[in-house]
Design a protein that fits this description.
The chain contains four helices and five strands, in the order βααββααββ. The chain is of the alpha+beta class. The protein has one domain (about 1-100): Alpha-Beta Plaits. Strands 1, 2, 3, 4 and 5 form a five-stranded antiparallel sheet that branches. A hairpin with a 4-residue loop joins strand 2 (about 40-45) and strand 3 (about 50-60). The longest helix has 10 residues, at about 65-70.
C-alpha cells in the first residue's frame, strides 16, 4: 500500500458547487476509483486559501496502469469535465498533470 497526496486550487465562486457535486458523487465514478485499487480517498478544503487537498491509499501494484485505466473511463471523463472548471491548476504542475502530487514527509501509524 502506498499513501498518495495531491493539492489543487479551487475557484472561490465554485466551492458550493464542488461540495454539492461531491456530496452526491456519481456511483460509477466511485466504483471506478475502487476498481483502480484506490481506498480511503478523502478531499479536504482549506479556506481562505481556497485549496483542495486529496489523500488516498493505493493498494495495487501498477499505479501508472491503474491511473491510465481510470483516465480512459468515459464516465470518469464526464465527471472530470463537470468538476474541472471548479478547480484552479497550479502553474508549477508537470505537463499532463492536473492535481499537483505531494511528497510524504511524515507518517505515524
Amino acid at each position: 500500500m502506498v499513501r498518495m497526496g495531491a493539492v489543487i486550487g479551487i475557484h472561490p465562486d465554485k466551492i458550493d458547487e464542488y461540495k454539492r457535486l461531491h456530496a452526491d458523487a456519481w456511483p460509477a465514478v466511485l466504483q471506478k476509483i475502487t476498481d483502480c485499487n484506490i481506498r480511503n480517498y478523502v478531499i479536504y478544503l482549506r479556506q481562505p486559501e481556497n485549496l483542495l487537498f486529496a489523500h488516498f491509499e493505493y493498494h495495487g501494484d501498477d499505479w501508472a496502469a491503474d491511473a491510465a485505466r481510470m483516465a480512459e473511463d468515459p464516465v470518469t471523463q464526464d465527471w472530470w469535465a463537470v468538476c474541472g472548471p471548479c478547480q484552479r491548476k497550479f502553474d508549477s504542475v508537470a505537463k499532463g498533470e492536473w492535481w499537483a502530487p505531494m511528497e510524504e514527509v511524515f507518517f505515524h501509524p
